[in-house]
């Protein structure tokens, strides 16, 4: 079985065929799909979707790219939603949260405010986090340390080996997806090949970060086995070993995933 640890299945790109996309993933061997929240407006959507599709799971959080439209009161809503979800085995943690220093025009103070307040919630409720770390690895790590958050996933990791080790030392796992299938992505491929296997999880970020064979096309969660095969090849191990290892790693990163059977 494979686990897609990061898939925005609620995105509008899937409005025409969402159930078929989920079914195709299941047929391909993807037993679980983690659907992260991005804003107050989609908390109910990702929860409902996780319950509707076979193998669904969800996280709740305010994405850094959505902070321009977020209100302080959204954090109160998030707290209430977390409290209401604690008995739901399909709820796996806080996400997608973090910082983004790639997209221009974002208010750094506003990003930092929402990130830090959500880390406080993660610590209070002892929940793992799914972190957006685009051009922000050191700053995201600083927050994890400050708020004593141990556990979760650094999504779409593309930092240095030193930064990778720092995340691992913080109890985090590192997410790898379609980027590793591009031969020109030298640093990501080196990281994917050389980091400890027990630190890695696989993800699509669908509909984004498509693998090389879907360049500039919509990504879908059924691509996980092929992405995983690419990762296995980079590491010189069998595909089955990679699937078993990354599934165990996903359960370690998001322990509530193991509470419900796929």
Topology of helices and strands:
Layout: E1 2-4, H1 18-28, E2 30-36, H2 43-52, E3 56-60, H3 73-85, E4 91-98, H4 108-125, E5 129-132, H5 137-146, E6 152-155, H6 161-169, E7 172-176, H7 186-194, E8 200-202, H8 224-235, H9 239-253
Parallel strand pairs: 1-2, 2-3, 3-4, 4-5, 5-6, 6-7, 7-8
Helix pairs in contact: 7-8, 8-9
Structural notes for this entry:
A divalent metal cation 1 binds at residues 6, 8, 96, 205. The chain has 262 residues and is of the alpha/beta class. The chain is built from 9 helices and 8 strands. α7 links the parallel β7 and β8 (200-202). α7 (186-194) packs across α8 (224-235) and α8 (224-235) packs across α9. The model has no long low-confidence stretch (mean pLDDT 97).
Characteristics of this structure?
262 residues, alpha/beta, TIM Barrel, eight-stranded parallel β-sheet, 9 helices, 41% helix, 15% strand, metal-binding, metal ion binding, hydrolase activity, acting on ester bonds, DNase_TatD-rel_CS, Metal_Hydrolase
Short recap of the structure:
This protein is α/β, with parallel strands linked by helices. The protein is about 40% helix and about 15% strand. It is globular and about 45 Å long.
